[in-house]
Amino acid sequence: MVLGDSGEAKAMARWAVHFAHAERAELAIFDASGECHGVEPVAADEGESFLQVTPGESELLESLPSLHGAWKAVTEVSGEPDPEGDLWPRVSLWTCRGRACSDQVLRFARERGTTLLIVPVRGSGLELSGPLFRSAPWRTILLRVGSSDGLRCEKILTPCAGGPHSREALRLSRRLCITNQGAMQPLYVELAIDEPEISGAVGEHILEGILRKAGIDPEESGDLEVQPRVVVSNQVADGIRE
Q1: Does pTM top 0.85 for this prediction?
Q2: Cα–Cα distance for residue pair 136/114, rounded to 1 Å
Q3: What 3-state DSSP class applies to 70?
Q4: Which of 5, 27, 72, 169 is the most exposed place for a label (fewest CB within 10 A)?
């Protein structure tokens, strides 16, 4: 996960922990903001571009507002590390010298063996979201936290149209909801070209096929609550908002 704005760092980190739990993956939090108030991070090797910060380095961590806020949020979701310093999901904190560009973020992600990249839509003037979304070879999520504190994801609405991106979004939503005991709401917007009842029935049939291709059966989802929804609208964006 890439951090850019200290104001959103806590919510971003909480969401990243949810995704890491759902993916059963380790989480690397990379502070790309370049914000540093006081103690400058120092690399053991002068040639190192990416510097790891351990929670035990309290003075250094407190001087990095985005990273410090993110770590506090991680412990709120996952709890404090055990006496051995272990935490699940495993979380590592990273920074770099100065503000990072998209090429640096991509190199960092590649070196970490990234399988899922989470990027803020905005952050302290960082123009990362567009370049990373276009060029990252991994699954990439642009995350706008809105008013959410990220502590829980109780209900996830997933608009889907049947392509590979929506299938992956449905699978991620399913895993997030299972982990958080939340309700999953797959949504399909059917254009209003017939009577509303006919359009609704067509939309339901299409959504059933989309869910089947994503490996999701609302009737056999166990403890997971799946609430498929169809909205009839002439505008897809209006249907999603509705």
Answers
A1: yes
A2: 10
A3: helix
A4: 72
